[in-house]
Design goal:
- This protein is an all-alpha fold.
- It has one domain (3-172).
- The protein is built from seven helices and no strands.
- It has helices at 3-60, 63-85, 91-110, 112-121, 129-137, 139-149, 169-172.
- 18% of the residues are buried.
- Keywords: Membrane, Transmembrane, Transmembrane helix.
- The chain crosses the membrane at residues 6-27.
Length: 181
C-alpha cells in the first residue's frame, strides 16, 4: 500500500465527510426556517390578540382616557402595518395579517367616535404613516370590508361593520361567501 492509495482513501473520506456536512447544514437551515416561520406567526398572533384587547380598552375607557387607549391601539396597528409594508413578516403570516388589518382599519373608519379619534391622533407628518400607507395600498380591500360588513339600513348613518370574523346567515347559503376575495 503506497502513498497514492492512502491519498485516494483520504480524498474519498473527506469528500464523504463534506457531503454529510452539507446535508446536515441543509437540514439545520430547513429547521431554522421552520422555526422562524412559527415564531413569526406566533408573534403576529400575539399582536392580533393585543389589538382585540386594545379595542375593548378603547370601548370601555372613560372619556378622559379614550384618546390614550386609542393611540395604544393605533401603535399596535402601526406595528402590523410596518411588518406588512416592509415585508418583514413571512408570506404565510401576511395572508392572515393583511385582511385582519384591513378589517380593523375599516372598523376604525366606519365608527363615528373612532374615526374622529383617528383624525385627532395624527400629530405630525410621520404619525401612523405606515398605517396610512397600508390603507392607501389596500383601499380596495378595505372598501370591500366596509361594503361586506355594512349592516346599517339608514343611508344617512355612518357605515357600521359587524365584529371581525362574522358572516351574515344569508351569506352562509352562498357557497362563494366564504371564499377569499
Amino acid at each position: 500500500m503506497d502513498a497514492n492509495f492512502w491519498a485516494a482513501v483520504a480524498a474519498i473520506a473527506s469528500g464523504f465527510t463534506a457531503a454529510i456536512t452539507l446535508f446536515i447544514a441543509w437540514a439545520n437551515h430547513r429547521v431554522t426556517l421552520a422555526a422562524e416561520k412559527s415564531y413569526d406567526f406566533n408573534s403576529c398572533l400575539t399582536v392580533v390578540f393585543q389589538v382585540g384587547q386594545a379595542l375593548r380598552q378603547v370601548r370601555d375607557a372613560p372619556d378622559d382616557k379614550k384618546e390614550f387607549e386609542f393611540r395604544e391601539l393605533l401603535n399596535l396597528l402601526e406595528a402590523l402595518a410596518v411588518g406588512v409594508n416592509d415585508k418583514l413578516i413571512q408570506a404565510a403570516t401576511r395572508k392572515m395579517v393583511e385582511p385582519f388589518l384591513a378589517e380593523c382599519y375599516a372598523y376604525l373608519k366606519t365608527q363615528p367616535s373612532l374615526s374622529e379619534l383617528l383624525k385627532n391622533s395624527v400629530t405630525g407628518e410621520g404619525t401612523f404613516c405606515e398605517l396610512y400607507k397600508f390603507a392607501s395600498i389596500n383601499m380596495t380591500q378595505i372598501n370591500q370590508c366596509i361594503g361586506r360588513y355594512n349592516v346599517s339600513s339608514d343611508p344617512e348613518a355612518p357605515e357600521v361593520i359587524r365584529p371581525l370574523g362574522t358572516v351574515p346567515a344569508a351569506d352562509l347559503k352562498d357557497e362563494n361567501a366564504l371564499a377569499v376575495r
